[in-house]
Design a protein that fits this description.
Largest sheet: 4 strands, antiparallel
Helix content: 55-70%
Radius of gyration: 19 Å
Strand content: 5-15%
Strand order of the largest sheet: 1-2-3-4
Number of strands: 4
Number of domains: 1
Length: 188
């Protein structure tokens, strides 16, 4: 049995990186564009004092014809689906927290390194977005990718971790399923 403490530390680090990325983009890219006269806050002040969605929709072109940083307050689930306000946000927080707790139990019991890595990413991403929902009643999305007419909905580091973690789980499941079949066939 492996020591699980590094796994929980990894969850903390990834969730912290998500919050740091959101702070940095909001305070250093969007705030000066939306309110040039307002000074940006340091990370700890931002985490402790800012409790509401405080920026209007702002967009900054980062890479011509491919990438913008666009301020989106996502009140729904993935890609803005099922936009929620009021009690709906609390229900969404509760459901996400319950799922995250279930994933934590799985993480504690997981023996496979690939599964543990996947779960660390998913849990950390979920926690990063839960923090946003508790603080702002919305998730901060800002990475806006597009190619010509094709546009991918805005997302953040936490969303990326969740998607990558799920993809890794699926790949691991497919690969381990093939390995089990191969072993089964060899035994006969």
């Amino acid at each position: 049995m492996i020591n699980k403490l590094p796994l929980f530390f990894a969850v903390f680090v990834v969730a912290a990186l998500d919050q740091i990325s959101k702070w940095w983009v909001l305070e250093n890219i969007f705030l000066p564009k939306a309110y040039p006269h307002k000074p940006s806050r340091d990370f700890f002040t931002w985490m402790s004092e800012v409790k509401e969605a405080y920026l209007p929709p702002v967009s900054v072109e980062m890479v011509d014809t491919m990438l913008n940083f666009s301020m989106v307050w996502n009140r729904g689930i993935s890609f803005g689906f099922l936009q929620q306000t009021g009690d709906g946000v609390m229900i969404l927080i509760g459901v996400t927290a319950a799922i995250t707790q279930g994933l934590m139990v799985w993480l504690i019991k997981a023996e496979d390194a690939n599964t543990r890595t996947s779960l660390v990413l998913i849990i950390a991403g979920a926690i990063g977005n839960i923090i946003d929902r508790i603080r702002f009643e919305a998730v901060i999305d800002f990475v806006d990718i597009y190619f010509g007419e094709w546009h991918y909905p805005a997302f953040n580091l936490a969303d990326s971790c969740i998607v990558i973690g799920v993809l890794l789980l699926v790949i691991n499941s497919l690969v381990s399923g093939k390995a089990e079949k191969t072993i089964t066939y060899k035994k006969k």
